[in-house]
Write a structure and sequence with these properties.
By secondary structure, this protein is α/β, with parallel strands linked by helices. It contains 16 helices and ten strands. The protein has a single domain, classed as Alpha-Beta Barrel (TIM Barrel). Helix 3 packs across helix 10, helix 5 packs parallel to helix 6 and helix 13 packs across helix 15. The N and C termini lie far apart (41 Å). Bound molecules: S-adenosyl-L-homocysteine and iron/sulfur cluster (SF4). S-adenosyl-L-homocysteine binds next to loops. The site of iron/sulfur cluster has 9 residues, from loops.
Length: 381
């Protein structure tokens, strides 16, 4: 409240806000609403901050969408449990390991294993075995990120001990009322449970990534500014956020007339990336695949103005049609090799360099640890 007051009283210029290192909610709203020359200045500043802090490298995380079986019914998602039009699949171990081998041989550095949310002991154990095998096939070299939804802290710990070291779990919205509007009303889809899961992931020692969808029904610009403040407050190591894209076979589809155009959502997503780069300069920020569903060069545009992580899709082409979280998901018929070549060319155009064979961990993640080591050291003296 106090900083809002100062901001409106002193009438800061846009350029002055850009040069700050700390931002109030109203500063963030100003940045997110930037148009014309201000929009250009925002993107230039974010690009400069990115180069100064995390550098020019883009790190690859090969994405393996290994199962679309999901126990949840999120109101926006195309593979929600109640969508009976989806043919459910589980990739075989061989298919998953082959995709990971491709990532390793092509020096991707890391893979992301993503799936619907399932918590059965059979699923949990399967992931344990897969993690061990991926580590084995790559001589421990491939970094592994998991994105398998909310699980118990014991499961998170077990997966961490088996080789995963990063976890993606989007908060989707940091506004509890809004969260409730886009999820079924029951304990299984509760905001509190989501926050607890994020906390548990930190306790279990992961580099935690979170994020939100941008431009879904009922969401305001203030909500998005608060989402950015939330990322900072919970001190995440990485963020992945992209435009919300409607899906015909979901309950949220009926509100499609009340939302921004796809182009507006795309532009807002770019501004969210740029603004976040100013707010949290040294974290990892992903160029979300959903950007590409709206603009063929969408991810490269995000890399130019602040993002530094890209997730090439390594899911077997035969399953991709059945992993449509949203409409127009790109590269439905491109295999991994094609996807890689096309990406390399695109990244070159965006002026970035690929960090081959590197994990590309969040620089931010290591900071508090170093601080802790120093504190422990001083306390011992
Ligand atoms: N089941 C896991 C991982 C798969 S879903 C989980 O929910 O965490 C991964 C992400 O896809 C979700 O976090 C959500 O933000 C995104 N997503 C789902 N439906 C979407 C839509 N209609 N538009 C844009 N992103 C969507
Ligand atoms: Fe399942 Fe994730 Fe889709 Fe929710 S967003 S329905 S948990 S796959």
């Amino acid at each position: 409240m106090a900083s809002n007051f100062i901001s409106s009283q002193t009438m800061k210029t846009f350029q002055e806000i850009l040069l700050q290192t700390d931002f109030s909610q109203s500063d963030l709203v100003t940045l997110l609403l930037a148009e014309g020359d201000n929009r250009k200045l925002l993107f230039q500043r974010a690009q400069a901050v990115k180069l100064q802090t995390v550098g020019n490298k883009v790190y690859f995380r090969g994405l393996v969408e290994f199962s679309n079986i999901c126990a949840k019914d999120c109101l926006y998602c195309g593979i929600r449990k109640s969508n009976e039009k989806v043919a459910r699949y589980e990739a075989t171990d061989d298919e998953i390991l082959e995709a990971c081998r491709f990532a390793w041989e092509n020096r991707f550095g890391s893979v992301v294993l993503q799936s619907g949310e399932v918590s059965s002991p059979a699923f949990v154990n399967r992931v344990v075995l897969l993690l061990r095998k991926i580590k084995e096939l790559s001589n421990g070299e491939l970094g592994i990120t998991l994105s398998c939804g909310e699980q118990s802290i014991e499961t998170y710990r077990q997966w961490r001990e088996s080789g995963a070291h990063r976890y993606l779990l989007r908060v989707e919205s940091s506004n509890p009322d809004l969260y409730r509007k886009i999820h079924p009303e029951n304990n299984f889809h509760s905001f509190e449970r989501r926050l607890q899961a994020l906390k548990d992931l930190k306790t279990a020692g992961y580099q935690v990534g979170t994020g939100v969808m941008i431009g879904f029904p009922f969401q305001t610009i203030e909500d998005l500014a608060n989402d950015l403040l939330f990322f900072k407050q919970i001190d995440v190591a990485m963020v992945g956020m992209g435009p919300y894209i409607e899906h015909e076979d979901t309950p949220l589809y009926k509100f499609r007339k009340n939302i921004k155009t796809k182009q507006e959502r795309f532009d807002l997503a770019l501004k969210m990336v740029a603004t976040l780069r100013l707010l949290m300069p040294d974290i990892n920020i992903a160029a979300a695949t959903a950007l590409q569903a709206i603009d063929p060069a969408g991810r490269e545009k995000a890399l130019t103005i602040g993002a530094n992580i890209l997730m090439p899709n390594l899911t077997s082409v035969k399953y991709r049609k059945e992993y449509q979280l949203y409409e127009d998901k790109p590269c439905l018929d491109e295999d991994a090799e094609l996807c890689k070549n096309c990406l390399e060319a695109r990244i070159e155009i965006s002026g970035c360099e690929i960090g081959y064979g590197e994990w590309g961990d969040s620089k931010h993640f290591f900071k508090p640890q170093i601080a802790q080591i120093i504190t422990d050291y001083i306390n011992k003296e």
